[in-house]
Amino acid sequence: MSREQARQVLKEAQRIAVATHVSPDADAISSAIGLVQILRRLGKTAEAFCDDDLPARLKALPHAGEIARIARGPFDLLVSLDASDPGRLGKAFAELQGIPLLNIDHHITNTHFGTINWIDPSAVATSEMVLWLAEDLGVTLDAELASILLAGIVGDTMGLRTANVSARVMHEVTRLMEAGASLPALVDALFNRRPLAAIRLFGQALAEARMEDGVIWTVITREMRAASGLTHANDLSLSSFLIGAEEARIAAVFTERDDGKVEVSMRARPGYDVARVALAFGGGGHPPAAGCLLPGPLEEAIPPILRALKAAAQNSQGKTPGEP
Ligand code: AMP
Ligand code: MN
Ligand code: MN
Questions:
Q1: 100: closest CA among 3, 8, 233, 220?
Q2: Strand 77-81 versus strand 101-105 pairing type
Q3: Does the C-beta of 291 come closer than 6 Å to ligand 1?
Q4: Which residue, judged by its Cα, is nearest atom 4 of ligand 1?
């Protein structure tokens, strides 16, 4: 299924509900708001949904305040963005049945749950795919739309620093900047601003990090989060920092949620694959960055994941010269 089919169904639809994944990141919110703005510019009725709270840094994006949690008709097309399986949408579409679902995503682990699926793991962000759609649908970029779409590209590439950033992506970034988006402002908002409490919690979890068989890992317990006063511990990007350890091939952070479930955030050096591990445990992601959600308690969630990650750390695809 293709980009052309996605363009076609979007062109034909009139009332469109666009939903993105729970625990939203910049790409989730950016692609959802971006597509809604594009569709509105074509004279259609479009609304964005996310069945979760938005972290403060994403609430500041234009139109983020208009995102509602649960879609209630009438709609003639549903669009899922940046979600690798329908569970990631929470209850956003739970009250709508029998409406075609267009599934647009860049996760290699996507389960193709839509009526129409456009899955492209070569895209650095779902927002990049939405940018291609803007071109295909003949919508001209203005400063606001460019800024919304650049947020997702910057978010998923860690500020244009990941291994998949190509000349193509840099050309697109240039076009978005020419249309009025500010790269420095987005990098600052998405990566350089965090509450002091988050920095302290980050330090505490770093101090506890353990290194075993090429896997560096640490835990954020409910008690640690409660003591810090932080609600969105996944904003820490701690796994992305841990994978910077020279001795590590794989990094994992286990975060205990208030409901007792355990969020696992995983990272791999180029040539290693954590998406397969995440998928085996009901989650998803990309080879270098993936996640899953496990029933608690921590003591039961951690050992099977660590076993799988240690096996993955022995399994090099041979892409990385000079690996430890
Ligand atoms: P994170 O570690 O939260 O930054 O997530 C890394 C990647 O894994 C992102 O592409 C997420 O969309 C994906 N991911 C994280 N948690 C889950 C989950 N529970 N199910 C499916 N994919 C996930
Ligand atoms: Mn995402
Ligand atoms: Mn994404």
A1: 8
A2: parallel
A3: yes
A4: 265
Judge: domain 196-313, CATH 3.40.50.300: no
pTM over 0.85: yes
CB 176 within 8 A of CB 141: yes
Of 224, 235, 230, 297, nearest in space to 261 by CA: 297
Taking CA atoms only, the protein residue closest to ligand 1 atom 8 is 290
Give the whole-angstrom CA distance, residue 120 versus residue 112. 11
Architecture of domain 3-138: Alpha-Beta Complex (3.90)
Q: Which residues are registered as beta bridge partners of 222? A: none
Domain ranges of the chain: 3-138, 196-313
Place of tokens 């270098």: 288
Contact between 30 and 151 (Cβ < 8 Å) = yes
Q: What residue's CA is closest to ligand 1, atom 2? A: 265
Identify the bridge partners of residue 285 per DSSP, sorted by sequence position. Answer: 290
Q: What is the pLDDT along the chain (324 residues), one digit of tens a residue?
A: 599 999 999 999 999 999 999 999 999 999 999 999 999 999 999 999 999 999 889 999 999 999 999 999 899 999 999 999 999 999 999 999 999 999 999 999 999 999 999 999 999 999 999 999 999 999 999 999 999 999 999 999 999 999 999 999 999 999 999 999 999 999 999 998 888 899 999 999 999 999 999 999 999 999 999 898 876 655 678 999 999 999 999 999 999 999 999 999 999 999 999 999 999 999 999 999 999 999 989 999 999 999 999 999 998 875 544 444
The Cα 103–Cα 69 span in angstroms is 18
DSSP three-state, residue 193: coil
CA atoms within 13 A on the CB side of 269: 24
Tell me the residues surrounding ligand 2 (ion) with CB < 5 Å: 25, 27-28, 82
Helix runs in the chain, H state only: 3-12, 26-41, 56-59, 126-136, 143-156, 167-178, 183-191, 196-207, 222-228, 238-242, 275-280, 298-313
